[in-house]
Design goal:
2 domains
């Protein structure tokens, strides 16, 4: 992982067409602006993870309906529920 320090109004460039600019720093939050071509999807990590999980669930359901597939699906769903609960607890710890 590349780690860079930037101040407000400073930017980094990714490839030839993506510019990430620090817009503001407010306490523990940083506001960033991303300038990228419209065909480049930009998602928050938690949304990206949810989309990937949904794709895995769809792939499992599209396969043959074997008991093992349903067990894999149950495992995936329960691990996601646990991860969501942990993230909620962590957010409460930070804000509370």
């Amino acid at each position: 992982m590349l780690v860079l320090n930037r101040k407000v109004d400073e930017s980094i460039v990714i490839g030839d067409s993506i510019v990430v600019t620090v817009l503001a720093i407010e306490g523990e939050q940083i506001k960033i602006g991303i300038n990228a071509p419209r065909d480049v999807p930009i998602l928050r990590k938690e949304v990206f993870d949810a989309v990937q999980d949904q794709k895995r669930i769809q792939e499992l359901m599209a396969k043959e309906t074997k008991p093992e597939s349903f067990e894999q699906l149950r495992t995936l769903l329960s691990s996601e529920s646990e991860k969501d609960a942990e993230e909620s607890e962590n957010k409460e710890d930070v804000s509370g």
